[in-house]
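Handout, page 2. Input:
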Amino acid sequence: MICRSIVALGCVLAVGAMAQNGEQRSASPILKAGVREVLVPVVVTDKSGHYVTGLSRDDFIIFEDGVLQKIVAFSRSSVATPVVQPADLPAGHAPAISPSVVRNDSPKQTYLICLDNLHSSFEDFAQVRKALKKFFAEEQAGDSQYALIALGWKLHVVVDSTRDPATILSAIGSKALLKTIQDSDARNLATETDRFVGLVGFWCGNCDCAHPTRDLTGPGGGIGCPALKGQVEADLFSFSERASTLNENFLRQLKQLVSAMSTMPTRRTVVFLSDGFNRFPGQELYSILKAYGVNGLNLKFDAHDLQPELEGILRLAVRYDVRFYTIDSRGLYTSAEVPGTGLGADSPGAPSSVVHEEMSVAWFNGDAMSQLAKQTGGQFFENSNDLLKGIRRAFADSREEYTIAYVPSNTKVDAKFRRITVKLNDRKLQIAAKAGYWATP
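Output:
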């Protein structure tokens, strides 16, 4: 399933952009057929996080796999309509929302706000909604367009496309979106995890789960031990299979969204808010077994690695410069409670080793989000309760960026990954750019 009007909008905008950008393109170097030109959007900030403007082509140095490249084109873009920041508002006054206006000009930025309601808890969604509402109450209508998607076991288009921030603000507070989040599978998966903790705790409390092959004989054996072991095995297998299917479908739909955005001749940003997800569905339960010291051969963890599906998204996003800004909606991590599970040091029957393993999995759940951001030139915001900071940065970066173009000296089209490194003569400045690209036709 894919939101068709987003795709249609991309085609319509492409026609308008070709006419609008005719003069600008004619000024670019004329490349021979078959020559690859690599575009690298770059954001430059100082140590305080302020954007650095006024840089020229000569300030930048770019490498591909460590080899210096010649810059063939360079440009800088800056937003025409500024975002209203809280410091700009009079005390005690709420910002006014610009009304919807029919615009003849083409938008310069496309922002897709993607809410992960397959892996995110309902409690964390409350903080996400609060941060988004505050941001869009400050956002002013300008040269941007927005879409709001809730992505779970199926894709739910909340707002397909609008130039009016007030439309997004209204949708964020709507009962329809609230119901979509409430009906997600995230709560069911969390309940299954908690139940599994109780089951393993009961098994290991009554049987020798560290050596389950003993079953009825040996220390810790009991008449019910084989049955408990079988139930643990069955739960581990069924959870892993179900989670794998859900996650594969989730990533397939995310790839379709990136594909739809790739047709749009604007700067393209995905603001992805999630509690994080595991590349190995079922690892959450296996970590519990590991914490209890279970060594049964039949309990060997052999889940499907979703890295190929994730890499498919990365290849597409990098090729069409779709930038991901990923925001961990779990907020600040603490040792008192494991993010996304409800388990903590005081959980009945859960030893400290279980909490430790679950915390490790919680950190690992951010790996996919980190990949999406860092490979595409965005940022991953984690371990912070200030979700609004990450949202603001995601929107602001594409409004103050440079674009560098170069023709790779390595002309091989071997589908291998080429690492890009962008440097500045002033090393005190900070650079954000995509990590590289795959050399495909």
